[in-house]
Specification:
Structural class: alpha/beta
Largest sheet: 6 strands, parallel
Helix content: 40-55%
Distance between the termini: 49 Å
Shape: globular
Strand order of the largest sheet: 1-9-8-7-5-6
Oligomer: single chain
């Protein structure tokens, strides 16, 4: 039986139609348009592309984006000042700091300076803590997008063994907490994990979030597992080997067209929700 393709691109498009309705309702009720501020520090081409894609997604649902482009020489204090300015701007309901920032900037300090109510990308420690405890918070966009895909396709999580390969602050760790909150039994793997192949082979739900092209081999994966690939690398490959995956997995996210579109869609959805909250 051929694997089910977890089509994030299709789901994102469907969700955008619903978000248009919500944005129009905000405009009719308040006369204002929700605004997402996007901060890009430096000239990394990939980051610039991602910011442009997020701006385009805002436009598709009727929101406005406020692009803020700072030079590569920007200091941490200058970035913090810009974020504080956006925190205090009543016209801005969401703030995105594009990751990664130049190495000389204290990225964690910058993330933490974003007002929690405007943290639509789910990057603050407070937001993470609230999410992990099952309280109301905007979840990190990529793992929250993955959870939306799994929910839409009715993938059973409760009681399943979920393996997350990667422990980054904005992907691996929040992904593990979201799966745990959905009553999966969760194993987190990382660079110091011993016998990774064996652990991966035991996964009912596998999430590749390691940031290395095709690092996880298809031969490691258990027959019938649900496979989520959160990676994207030049050449259109993810963190998980493509070859043979269709015959092994019961369901999987394609690369591209799986997790990526839902990451952006979740960010926009969080921004719309923030707009609703601020403009009540």
């Amino acid at each position: 039986m051929q694997a089910l393709i977890l089509d994030g691109k299709k789901l994102a498009k469907e969700n955008e139609e619903l978000l248009k309705v919500r944005v129009n309702a905000i405009k009719e009720r308040t006369g204002k348009t929700p605004i997402l501020a996007t901060i890009l520090v430096g000239d990394d081409p990939a980051s610039a592309t991602y910011v442009k894609m997020k701006g385009n997604a805002c436009a598709r649902v009727g929101m406005e984006s406020m692009p803020v482009h700072l030079s590569k020489q920007t200091t941490t204090s200058e970035l913090l000042a810009k974020i504080e300015e956006l925190n205090e701007n009543p016209n801005v309901q969401g703030i995105l700091l594009q990751h990664p920032v130049p190495h000389h900037i204290n990225e964690r300090a910058a993330f933490e300076s974003i007002e929690r109510r405007k943290d639509v990308d789910g990057v603050t420690c407070l937001g993470f803590g609230l999410m992990a405890m099952g309280e109301k918070a905007y979840g990190s966009a990529t793992p929250a997008g993955i959870m939306a895909i799994l929910k839409h396709y009715k993938i059973q999580l409760e009681g399943k063994h979920a393996v997350v390969v990667g422990r980054s602050a904005i992907l691996g760790k929040p992904m593990a907490m979201m799966l745990l909150n959905a009553n999966a039994t969760v194993t987190i793997c990382h660079s110091k994990t011993e016998d990774l192949e064996k652990i991966v082979s035991e996964a009912d739900i596998l999430v590749g979030a390691v940031g290395k092209p095709e690092f996880i081999k298809a031969s490691w994966i258990k027959k019938g597992a649900v496979v989520v690939d959160a990676g994207y690398h030049p050449g259109g490959v993810g963190d998980i080997e493509k070859a043979g995956l269709d015959e092994i997995a019961s369901a999987y996210t394609p690369v591209p067209g799986g997790v990526g579109p839902m990451t952006i869609n979740t960010l926009i959805s969080n921004s719309v929700e923030s707009g609703e909250n601020f403009l009540k």
